[in-house]
Task: structure prediction
Amino acid sequence: MSTNTLEIPDFRHSPRVDEVGIEERVSRFTKRSIKTDAKHAGLHLILSMIDLTTLEGKDTEGKVRQMCYKAKHLHDSIEGIPKVAAVCVYPSLVRVAKKELDGSGINVAAVATAFPSGQAPKAVKIADTKFAVKEGADEVDMVISRGKFLEGDYKFVFDEIVAVKEACGNAHLKVILETGELSTLDNVRRASDIALYAGADFIKTSTGKVSPAATMQVTLVMLEAIRDFYYATGKMVGMKPAGGISKSKLALHYLVMLKETLGNAWMTSEWFRFGASSLANDVLMQLAKQEYGNYQSMDYFSLD
Result:
């Protein structure tokens, strides 16, 4: 379904967010009891949903190769460990990751559009996106123009996402809202609606470069926007909280929230991702504890 066939709403009138209600629901999600078998299944699911990420100015080809190896061999001594969903890198390193992951079934994601600030002319952002796709990116993570959004120029933000989506071709587009710079949950909801109607395949909380990054509160607001968009259009869109999710216990709370807000259809890596790297090690430690009866030293796990 293209944006041309959708009735585009007036984003000035996006639904207001009941902040007290959001806090209450998040509190309930964190108090759910998760039994041993469900926890084991949940930990496997979390691993399969992770986008292993390195987005530093000091990134090298060697570091990306190491991360790709980890993505394919998370913990070979434990049977049945799933592979992660993707490896996320800068566009200049996509070709390296693509070669290392060839035949693995693991996607290559690339950040684009002047990540993380988004402060670049539209033509530069489009060129950045096209370069990433040409290098082999299966997924593109773009950032919205937060300055334009906060000025109230919602049409600019909408049109830019549409243009980047077109530049992606067959690659999936994840739209990063950078919720830590949006100030209010009402703004998070409005930015989510803009991204959804502009054609995002995923909406994503954060770049990981701004604090606060992902929180359960902003993620719930975004999940509710996805739910309402699905009811209005019949189109499923994915969700990716990113930044600050480093412990498996917290990730399990996110899965509870996902299941109770969007249902079982979204409980796969096709529709939900965690933007994280250290989370993978914590999940592996929990699985090793279940397998061997004791926690392994961090020396058994690669540094990210």
Notes: The longest helix spans residues 216-233. The domain at 14-300 is CATH 3.20.20.70 (TIM Barrel).
